[in-house]
C-alpha cells in the first residue's frame, strides 16, 4: 500500500550560496566521503563552531547520538554524508551541499534529482522556521542544485528483495554459492526479473565463505543465514569470525575491543570506529533469539 504524506514546512532553493564562514546555525552541511566530513569538521571547529558528524561507517547508535545533539541545539552545524537522508531525526533550517558529485562505489557521478530531493528535504522545521532553504558552497554548484531540484525524481520501477531460508533451500551448493546464485536472479521467474532486483549480498557472501560446510550444518541454514546478516564490513570480519567460532563452540562471544581515550589523531579515530563497529555486531547478535544466550555482557557493551 502506498501512503502519501504532505510536506508541512515550505522549502525553497536559496538565492545565494554560503561559505564556511557564513553558514548559519541549524545547517546540515552535506559532503560525500568520510575524509571530506572530517576535514570540514576540523575547519569549522577552528572557526569556533560546534559541530556534529554523521556518516555511514559510524554505527547506527553513534549516528543517532550525533543527530540528537544537533536536534537539541547542542551543536550548530551537522556535517553529514548522504546517511543524513536515512532514518535520522535531523530537523534543520538549511541544507547546504558541499559537493554535487559523489562516488557510488564504481564511478564519480553527479547527484540524481531523487538524492537532492531526499537530502534537501531535511531543510525546514514545521512550526519553528518559515521556509527551509537548500543551498550550496559555490554559485556553480547552487545552479546545479537548482536544476536538479526542479526535476521530478524518477519513479521506482523495481523492488529489492533478499532471500529467505526457503529460497536458499532450493538452491544447491554452499551457503556462499546459494547467495551468489540468488544474487544473479537465477531463482527468480523470468517474468519477474524486470521488476525485481536483489539486495546487495556481497558482504553476506564474503561472510558465508568464512564458514565451512560443517559449521553451516551445525548451525542450521536458518541460523547461518541470520549470522551472515550481521552488520559487518571488511575491517570487522575477523571480529565477526571470532563471534561465530564462540557460538559454534557454545561459549560467550568476545567483548569488543576498548576504544582509545582520548582520541589524539586519525589512527585513534579509526580504532574508535573499529571498537564501535565491533560493539554494533555484538549488540546486533544479542538482539537475535538464536544468539542472545551467547551475549551475557550486552548491558556492559551498550
Walkthrough of the structure:
This protein is 39% helix and 12% strand. The chain is built from 12 helices and 10 strands. The longest helix has 21 residues, at 266-286. Helix 6 (175-183) runs antiparallel to helix 7 (202-209). Among the domains are: 11-149, P-loop containing nucleotide triphosphate hydrolases (Rossmann fold); 230-301, no CATH class. The protein is globular and about 65 Å long. It has helices at residues 34-46, 60-71, 113-120, 139-149, 165-169, 175-183, 202-209, 213-219, 221-228, 237-248, 266-286, 298-301, and strands spanning 11-13, 27-30, 51-54, 77-80, 94-97, 101-103, 108-110, 132-136, 159-161, 196-198. The protein has a 6-stranded parallel β-sheet with strand order 1-8-5-2-4-3. A two-stranded antiparallel sheet has the order 6-7. It has 302 residues and is an alpha/beta fold.
Amino acid at each position: 500500500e502506498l501512503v502519501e504524506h504532505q510536506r508541512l514546512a515550505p522549502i525553497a532553493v536559496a538565492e545565494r550560496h554560503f561559505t564556511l564562514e557564513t553558514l548559519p546555525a541549524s545547517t546540515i552541511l552535506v559532503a560525500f566521503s568520510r575524509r571530506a566530513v572530517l576535514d570540514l569538521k576540523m575547519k569549522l571547529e577552528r572557526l569556533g563552531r560546534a559541530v556534529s558528524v554523521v556518516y555511514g561507517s559510524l554505527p547506527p547508535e553513534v549516528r543517532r547520538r550525533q543527530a540528537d545533539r544537533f536536534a537539541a541545539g547542542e551543536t550548530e552545524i551537522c556535517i553529514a554524508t548522504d546517511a543524513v537522508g536515512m532514518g535520522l531525526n535531523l530537523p534543520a533550517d538549511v541544507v547546504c551541499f558541499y559537493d554535487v558529485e559523489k562516488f557510488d562505489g564504481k564511478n564519480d557521478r553527479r547527484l540524481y534529482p531523487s538524492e537532492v530531493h531526499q537530502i534537501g528535504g531535511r531543510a525546514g522545521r514545521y512550526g519553528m522556521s518559515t521556509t527551509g532553504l537548500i543551498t550550496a558552497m559555490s554559485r556553480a554548484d547552487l545552479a546545479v542544485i537548482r536544476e536538479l531540484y526542479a526535476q521530478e525524481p524518477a519513479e521506482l520501477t523495481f523492488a529489492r528483495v533478499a532471500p529467505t531460508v526457503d529460497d536458499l533451500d532450493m538452491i544447491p551448493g554452499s551457503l556462499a554459492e546459494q547467495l551468489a546464485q540468488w544474487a544473479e536472479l537465477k531463482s527468480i521467474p523470468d517474468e519477474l526479473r524486470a521488476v525485481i532486483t536483489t539486495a546487495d549480498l556481497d558482504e553476506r557472501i564474503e561472510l558465508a565463505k568464512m564458514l565451512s560446510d560443517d559449521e553451516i550444518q551445525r548451525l542450521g541454514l536458518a541460523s547461518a543465514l541470520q549470522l551472515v546478516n550481521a552488520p559487518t564490513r571488511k575491517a570487522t570480519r575477523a571480529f565477526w569470525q571470532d563471534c561465530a567460532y564462540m557460538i559454534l563452540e557454545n561459549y560467550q562471544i568476545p567483548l569488543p575491543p576498548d576504544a582509545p581515550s582520548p582520541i589524539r589523531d586519525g589512527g585513534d579515530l579509526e580504532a574508535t570506529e573499529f571498537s564501535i563497529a565491533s560493539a554494533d555486531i555484538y549488540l546486533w547478535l544479542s538482539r537475535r533469539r538464536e544468539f542472545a544466550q551467547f551475549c551475557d555482557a550486552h548491558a556492559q557493551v551498550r
